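Dear colleagues,

I hope this message finds you well. In preparation for our joint manuscript, I am sending the Putative barstar (Aneurinibacillus aneurinilyticus ATCC 12856) sequence together with its predicted structure, so that both groups work from identical material. I would be grateful if you could confirm receipt.
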Amino acid sequence: MKGGASLKKIIVDGKAITSMDELHNTLHLQFGFPDYYGRNLDALWDMLTGGIELPVTIEWQSYATSSERLGEEGQRLLELLREAEQELEGGLTVIVHE
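The corresponding structure tokens are as follows:
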């Protein structure tokens, strides 16, 4: 981010997430992704690593609740977020609250 722009914070309320579609819709809306966002993990990776302004923090509240509902897909999404966090070296911060 240029100049004195402030840090953007994205909140994911795990209690409100009941499906991967809902989770992708939440991220789409909060990040302001373009309409062509594919709502899948590959598309999310592309957006996080090249389609958003940095720095940004993603705070996933009540992860355990959403993880129960999302199963393996939710775990894969969290892994993708952690990988993007490493790739972007301080540009993306992921905070998970159980």
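For the figure legend, we might mention the following. The radius of gyration is 13 Å. The chain has a mean pLDDT of 93.

With kind regards,
E.M.
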